[in-house]
Design a protein that fits this description.
The chain is α+β, with helices and mostly antiparallel strands and 189 residues long. Helix content is 32%, strand content 28%. It is built from 7 helices and 8 strands. The strands form 2 sheets. Strands 1-2-3-4-5 form a 5-stranded antiparallel β-sheet, sandwiched between helices. It has a 3-stranded antiparallel β-sheet with strand order 6-8-7. Strand 1 and strand 2 form a beta hairpin. Helix 1 crosses helix 3 and helix 5 crosses helix 7. The N and C termini lie far apart (35 Å). The model has no long low-confidence stretch (mean pLDDT 95). It binds coenzyme A. Coenzyme A binds next to helix 2, strand 5, helix 5 and helix 6.
C-alpha cells in the first residue's frame, strides 16, 4: 500500500496554509489544547491535555500516513506562519466514510480560518484523492462548527450514531460534501 502523501506545496488560499505537523509545533499545540472548548466538542483529543499528548501526536503522523489512516494538518497563518489550529481528513481505510474534523486555538477564532481550512481539505480530498463523499459530524449544540460546515459547502445529511469521548452512545449531526457538489462549487468560484 502506497503511503498517503500530504500535498506539496502545502494547501493554501493566501490567508491560511495547511502543512504537516512539526516538532516545533509541540509547545503551541499543547497551549492551544488547554482550552476546555476543544474537548467539549471533540471526541479523541485527550483531556486533560499534557505536553506528552502533543509530542505523541506529532510523532505519530508518519504512521497515520503509512497506514493511509488520516491526513492531519496544522492550520497556520499564511503570512506569519503562526499556528492557528488543526484539521484532519480521516480516511477510515477499513471502509468507513472519510470525515473531516477541526479545531482552532481560542484567539484564532472568528476570522474564517476554520472555514478556509475545511474548504481546502475537502477540495483536496475530493479532487486529488478522488473521494466521492466526505462527512463532517458535530454535536447538535455546536452551532459554530455547523456554521463552518455550511460555509465550507457541506449540506446537512441527518444524524449519525456514535460514541462520545466517554464511550457513551449518542446522535451527532452529519454534514456531507460530495464530489459532484465539489465540482459545482469550484465552477462557481
Ligand atoms: C468550531 C470552531 C473551529 C469554529 O471557529 P470559528 O472561528 O467560528 O470558525 P471560522 O474560523 O470559520 O470563523 C467564522 C467566524 O469568522 C467570521 N469570518 C470573518 N471572515 C471570514 C471569512 N473570510 N470566511 C468565513 N468566516 C469569516 C464569520 O462571520 C464567523 O464569525 P461569527 O461566528 O461571529 O459569524 C471553533 O469554535 C472551535 O475550535 N471550537 C472547539 C473545537 C470544535 O468545536 N471543533 C469542531 C468539532 S465538530
Amino acid at each position: 500500500m502506497k503511503p498517503l502523501q500530504l500535498p506539496d506545496p502545502p494547501l493554501t488560499d493566501g490567508a491560511v496554509t495547511l502543512r504537516g505537523w512539526r516538532e516545533s509545533d509541540v509547545q503551541d499545540l499543547f497551549e492551544a489544547c488547554q482550552d476546555p472548548e476543544i474537548p467539549r466538542w471533540t471526541i479523541r483529543i485527550p483531556w486533560p491535555y499534557l505536553i506528552g499528548h502533543a509530542r505523541d501526536w506529532v510523532a505519530r503522523q508518519p504512521d497515520f500516513l503509512r497506514a493511509r489512516e488520516a491526513a492531519q494538518f496544522a492550520i497556520t497563518d499564511a503570512d506569519s506562519g503562526r499556528l492557528l489550529g488543526g484539521i484532519g481528513l480521516e480516511l477510515h481505510p477499513d471502509g468507513g466514510q472519510p470525515e473531516i474534523g477541526y479545531w482552532l486555538a481560542r484567539d484564532a477564532r472568528g476570522r474564517g480560518a476554520a472555514t478556509r481550512a475545511t474548504r481546502l481539505v475537502a477540495g483536496w480530498g475530493l479532487d486529488a484523492l478522488g473521494l466521492e463523499l466526505i462527512g463532517l459530524r458535530t454535536h447538535a449544540e455546536n452551532l459554530a462548527s455547523q456554521a463552518v460546515a455550511v460555509r465550507a459547502g457541506f449540506v446537512p445529511a441527518g444524524t449519525i450514531g456514535g460514541l462520545d469521548r466517554h464511550g457513551i452512545a449518542r446522535e451527532f449531526l452529519l454534514f456531507t460534501r460530495s464530489a459532484a457538489r465539489g465540482a459545482a462549487a469550484s465552477a462557481r468560484r
